[in-house]
């Protein structure tokens, strides 16, 4: 059997597959690699997710608890309104502005009044309280996340709550708080696909199973460039042992996929991989609450405006593709609300923090962005000019999922109805 056929044969599929596959990647080997990586990472996580379903006192997602509604949240990293929802920015977001805005509930003024660093911003969004913990995710949020609230109050399984993230300023501590009576026992599955892939590649290299020496040299070079490419903000990935747990069948498939990837050549985007893994998680586990965190835009920390804008375009396309999956996938269609928002903006041009490079200034450009909601909870498309806050999203999501109200600083957005 040739490699392509073996990959296909080894790749478990979830039937029925949604008919719509808007994947725009034309390079077949890269597509094969990304798809295989998504499938493989989901496979690695399968035992954990199944354990989640069997936890004592927890119901699987077949149980009728809560509203029966699903929620997908897409978080973008830091993007200014100037490069997105402004007259000059619209060209960077053709899908958000052209395809999605006409059917969306849109909030043009959404403020981050907390710490404008990644871990704090995202944990504020996920808890409904402004969090001021370690910027690099060394400490959990201090009040319960929506995952914990949902799981504890309604007896929902871990397999129903997922975070899939590109941003390496996050750690798995984003999935649960340090609040007493809550914590990791009620947390979400948290996945960093690029980290898993790097570990899988490193492991394959260590095992010397990447084919002939020429291939190994290419894999080494590719791995190094990936590691360099992810080294923004000066923090390396932490060592992760997921690759050590691969079973031999999965490992063999990874090696085939790596070979295809190396032969295909060309850099790949962390957000593309995050998208593929997220879609695979939707198809395999159909979680009721999925949070997808993109971060290609954070290449801005390197100072390249054109790469930053390219990251915005990638995020625009991938968010649209996730929405297409929601509409095509029978587990999601007509019962899902999808919310898209940036973590914050970026600093204004001419600021003493290097403008778009960073997101530290206490200015409107950094603090005020936007939010878009689509799907089941949207009665009618409209623009809501009223200023809202990031912390208002969490109690809103809890309401959509049928949870009792949360004790949070945020207030539920009345325009979104479950
Ligand atoms: Zn950043």
Structural features, described:
The model is unreliable at 1-27, 49-62 and 230-247 (pLDDT under 50). It contains twelve helices and nine strands. Helices cover 39% and strands 11% of the residues. It has helices spanning 3-10, 28-53, 94-100, 118-127, 146-154, 193-207, 213-229, 248-264, 270-285, 305-328, 364-367, 393-400, and strands spanning 70-75, 105-111, 161-165, 189-191, 289-293, 336-341, 368-375, 382-383, 388-389. It starts with a helix and ends in an 18-residue tail after the last helix.
Compressed to H and E, one letter per element, the order equals HHEHEHHEEHHHHEHEHEEEH
Portion of residues in beta strands equals 5-15%
- Continuous helix count: 12
Contiguous uncertain segments of 5+ residues = 1-27, 49-62, 230-247
Alpha-carbon Rg, integer: 20 Å
In whole angstroms, the N-to-C terminal distance is 50 Å
Q: Quick recap of the structure?
A:
By secondary structure, this protein is of the alpha/beta class. It is built from 12 helices and 9 strands.
Task: Please specify the SSE layout and strand pairing.
Blueprint: H1 3-10, H2 28-53, E1 70-75, H3 94-100, E2 105-111, H4 118-127, H5 146-154, E3 161-165, E4 189-191, H6 193-207, H7 213-229, H8 248-264, H9 270-285, E5 289-293, H10 305-328, E6 336-341, H11 364-367, E7 368-375, E8 382-383, E9 388-389, H12 393-400
Parallel strand pairs: 1-5, 1-6, 2-8, 2-9, 3-4, 3-5
Antiparallel strand pairs: 2-7, 6-7
Bound molecules: zinc ion.
């Amino acid at each position: 059997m040739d490699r392509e056929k073996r990959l296909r044969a080894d790749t478990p599929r979830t039937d029925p597959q949604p008919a719509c596959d808007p994947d725009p990647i034309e390079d077949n080997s890269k597509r094969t690699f990304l798809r295989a990586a998504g499938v493989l990472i989901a496979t690695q996580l399968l035992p954990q997710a199944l354990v989640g379903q069997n936890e004592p006192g927890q119901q699987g997602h077949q149980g009728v608890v809560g509203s029966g509604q699903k929620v997908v949240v897409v978080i973008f990293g830091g993007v200014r309104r100037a490069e997105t929802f402004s007259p000059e920015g619209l060209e960077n977001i053709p899908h958000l502005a052209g395809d999605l805005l006409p059917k969306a509930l849109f909030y043009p003024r959404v403020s981050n009044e907390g710490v404008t660093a990644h871990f704090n911003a995202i944990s504020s969004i996920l808890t409904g309280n402004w969090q001021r913990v370690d910027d690099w995710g060394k400490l959990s949020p201090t009040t319960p996340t929506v995952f914990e609230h949902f799981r504890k109050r309604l007896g929902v399984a871990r397999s129903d709550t997922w975070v899939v993230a590109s941003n390496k300023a996050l750690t798995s501590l984003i999935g649960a708080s340090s609040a007493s009576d809550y914590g990791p026992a009620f947390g979400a599955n948290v996945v960093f696909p690029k980290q898993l892939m790097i570990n899988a590649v490193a492991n394959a290299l260590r095992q010397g199973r990447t084919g002939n020496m020429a291939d190994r040299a290419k894999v080494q070079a590719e791995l190094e460039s990936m590691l360099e490419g992810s080294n923004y903000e000066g923090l390396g990935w932490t060592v992760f042992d997921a690759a050590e747990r691969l079973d031999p069948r999965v490992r063999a498939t990874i090696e085939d996929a790596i070979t295809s990837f190396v032969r295909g050549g060309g850099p790949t985007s962390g957000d593309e991989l995050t998208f593929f893994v997220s879609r695979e998680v939707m198809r395999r586990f159909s979680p009721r609450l999925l949070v997808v965190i993109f971060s290609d835009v954070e290449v801005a920390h390197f100072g390249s405006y054109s790469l930053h804008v390219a990251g915005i375009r990638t995020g625009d396309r991938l968010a649209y593709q996730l929405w297409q999956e929601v509409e095509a996938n029978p587990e999601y269609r007509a019962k899902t609300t999808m919310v898209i928002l940036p973590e914050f903006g970026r600093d204004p041009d001419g600021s003493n923090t290097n403008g778009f490079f960073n997101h530290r200034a206490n200015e409107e450009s950094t603090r005020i962005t936007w939010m878009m909601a689509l799907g089941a909870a949207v009665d009618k498309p409209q623009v809501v000019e009223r200023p809202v806050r990031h912390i208002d999203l969490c109690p809103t999501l809890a309401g959509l999922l049928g949870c009792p109200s949360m004790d949070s600083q945020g207030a539920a957005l009345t325009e979104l109805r479950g």
